[in-house]
Structures are given as structure tokens and as C-alpha cells.
Write a structure and sequence with these properties.
Layout (H helix, E strand, L loop, with lengths): L2 E3 L1 E4 L5 E4 L7 E4 L2 H21 L17 E3 L2 H15 L4 H8 L3 H7 L8 H10 L17 H13 L1
Length: 161
Amino acid sequence: MLRYPVVLERDDNGTVLVSFPDIPEAHTFGINKEEALSRAVDAALTALDARIADRESIPTPSALKADSAPHARLPALAEAKITLYRTMRAARMKKTQLARKLNVHLAQVDRLINLRHQSRLDQLEAAFRVFDCDLTLCIVQRSSRVAPTTRRKLARKARTR
């Protein structure tokens, strides 16, 4: 899970400014803390998408000081696309080469690493197979508000499917 730490600061006009220690070019603001944090994800995606377009590296998020520390959690699809982009860079594979191996047009590969495009998982899986990798999903329960007996029932139901 990609969670980028953010710094929240009160501005002169009362708004809350958001900056990212790991993504210095990403900034946003909100009327209050909640709005600022909700806009933080969009700011991070915009900056990281620009880095991809410029063929720059994507920074690894710094460790959060605490789980409750303010952060921008990127959507799972964006995380998969960033991982694909990093994999391509590590393998020194250009988009044209990946397009050839997938037997698709270059524009389709562009969309696979575009953080704003709603790509299909099967297309991402095919791209990862080129690198001998599997794309897997991991579902993590966000809170312990679900009663333990309900958790056990859900786990049993998932195993029987």
C-alpha cells in the first residue's frame, strides 16, 4: 500500500496547506484538514503522473511516524500502475518494446501506466507476465470494528469459494 506522508500547515488566510516530503512538487490545500487530506491524493497522483510522463523515478514513500499520521493513500489501481512502471524501468524496457511483446498499440501501454486511466486488471496482469510476475490482490480489513465471530464467518466463507 502506497501511503505518502503529508505535512499540514495553516496558511495566513485560514486554509490548510498540504505538502509532501517525498514529492516536493506536489502541493494542495483545503478549507479544513479533512478537505486538504481528500485533495492530497489527487495532488500526489498529478505529480507522480507527470514524473511518469517525464520518465523520472517514482519515490518510495517515507515511513509514517504513526498509523494516525496524516498521509495520502494511493488507490490500488494507481499502485499497480506505479509498480508496472518501476518494473519497466528496472528491466530497462521501453514502452514500444512492451507494446510489441503484448501485441498491442503503443497507446495501450501509455494508458497502462497513466495513473488517471481506468485500466482493466487483466491488461495489467498481461503486462506483468511479460516480466515473469503475477499481479495479486490482498484484501486487508481496515478496522477491528467487525465482531470476531463475524470475521471468522467471513474467513470461512472466503475459503469455501
